[in-house]
Specification:
Layout (H helix, E strand, L loop, with lengths): L5 H10 L2 H9 L10 H7 L24 E8 L7 E7 L9 H10 L26 E8 L2 E8 L3 H9 L12
Antiparallel strand pairs: 1-2, 1-3, 3-4
């Protein structure tokens, strides 16, 4: 089957006689209309379509790459946990200590129509448990959307939000 550009097909149909088009309109809706003999003659002047033409997507350009790339900055989490980490998912790369685990956590928390990095809702009722002074900031692009999210552990809701992103964020355990 060859692919005919839309403009050529429209030109070929325009060249058909009015009686041919009337015959097409009168054909029953359940039957496939027979192609008028004139169609082949009108399309004969076209260059043949090369095999596979129109079936391949255009090559990817660098500006088309929307990969999932995040920068995670962790502060006051403790010795060996503080730092700035890069993580790229799909495929997995970066200097994050557990990039593959971080990507799995992100994938597990990503749902259509829901902000993966949404803050705790302001009207949430949270336990008054302090999880320590650790903070994190996650910036970059995830699922084609810009990300700029801040994390802390000031109450039970914030701790739960942090823990949902482990190992993207360091595992600090439960507050004592």
């Amino acid at each position: 089957m060859s692919v005919v550009p839309r403009g050529v097909l429209v030109s070929a149909l325009a060249a058909l006689s009015v009686p041919s088009l009337s015959a097409l309109a009168a054909a029953p809706a359940t039957a496939a209309p027979a192609a008028p003999a004139a169609t082949s003659a009108h399309l004969a002047h076209l260059a043949p379509t090369p095999p596979g033409a129109g079936l391949m997507p255009p090559p990817a350009r660098p500006e088309d790459e929307t990969g999932d790339h995040l920068t995670v900055v962790v502060r006051q989490a403790g010795r060996g946990l503080d730092g700035t980490y890069q993580v790229t998912c799909h495929p997995t790369a970066g200097n994050h200590p557990d990039a593959a685990g971080a990507c799995r956590a992100l994938d597990a928390n990503t749902q259509w129509g829901r902000d993966t990095f949404a803050p705790v809702a302001p009207d949430s009722v949270c336990t008054m448990v302090y999880g320590g002074p650790a903070t994190a900031r996650v910036t970059g692009t995830w699922a084609g959307r810009p990300v700029d999210a801040a994390y802390e552990r000031g109450n039970g809701c914030e701790i739960t939000r942090w823990d949902r992103m482990v190992p993207l964020l360091p595992d600090l355990g439960s507050p004592a």
